[in-house]
Amino acid sequence: HGKSFILLIMGFGCNVLAVMATRTIESRSSRMITMLAVPLMSCSARLPLYVLICGTFFAEYAGTMLLVLCLTGITAAVCMARLFRKFLFKNEDVPFVMKLPPYRMPTTRAICIHMWEKAKQYLHKMGGIILVASIIIWFLGYFPRETARTAAFKQQIASIENTQISPEEKDKQLQEIEHQMAMDHQENSYIGRIGQIIAPVMEPLGFNWKISVSLLSGMAAKEIVVSTLSVLYTGSDDSEQALTERLLQEKNPDGTDVFTPLVGLSLMLFVLLYFPCIATVTAIVNESHSWKWGAFVIVYTCCLAWVVSFLVYQIGNIIIN
Fold this sequence. Notes:
By secondary structure, the protein is mostly helical. 71% of the residues lie in helices and 0% in strands. The chain contains 15 helices and no strands. α4 crosses α12, α5 (62-87) crosses α13 (261-273) and α9 crosses α10. The longest helix has 35 residues, at 108-142. The mean pLDDT is 86.
């Protein structure tokens, strides 16, 4: 529907608000098609990962890569919308006629009132869901606190603190031990174990268990993907420079690089297309008045992301080799 255009553009800012705005479309068929296509728009929450990967592996073509990702999302949305129209929503409820209202310059008072109402509505509907999802992800990543190697790490820390060496050398050794301790904790946390379980499914896409864990955490909010990678690869979530260096240095057991430009491209495409955030799924459920459409979005986006990343990674490997 013509009204879908502005809503899809809104999706580049936030998928949640775009889904909520679909109520302006009178036809339920067109509204549902727009709602199901909006998650494929590359929202701003995905930008941190794009910036990280493009800056690390595609520094000379970063702008081009971002454009390619946006165009890929648009193309996927168009293709899926046509499939939805053909197989799921064949009938149009109302004629394709859009009456244009008289446009006037808004007053400051009207702007403030509408901004407050929409912001309150967003926070009321989505704030609780985001909070609950974030707590669940935090719990899975924080517990259990003790692992089989925790006692050994603490003994090493105590031994280093009692060693008569220079303060600079002591700090360096302590930081290394704490880094290893943080990575061991993430590996043995509940979410780390889940990531290792699904690792065989993600391996054909070029992803190891650490990337799988970051993608799981990204279900709450896409910004968390980068911070999770930072914790898993550097032991800290506040050092982007250290993360870029670590990504370039990380090796597989067979000596090959964990991250390559091809793996980075596959990861960006997967994040672009897979599970929309919890808030977006909740918005779709609320606007469609059915949990089945929320579940449908989760399934179809994950399947689409897996297929696209699989084809890109496997075909890329064939071409490179």
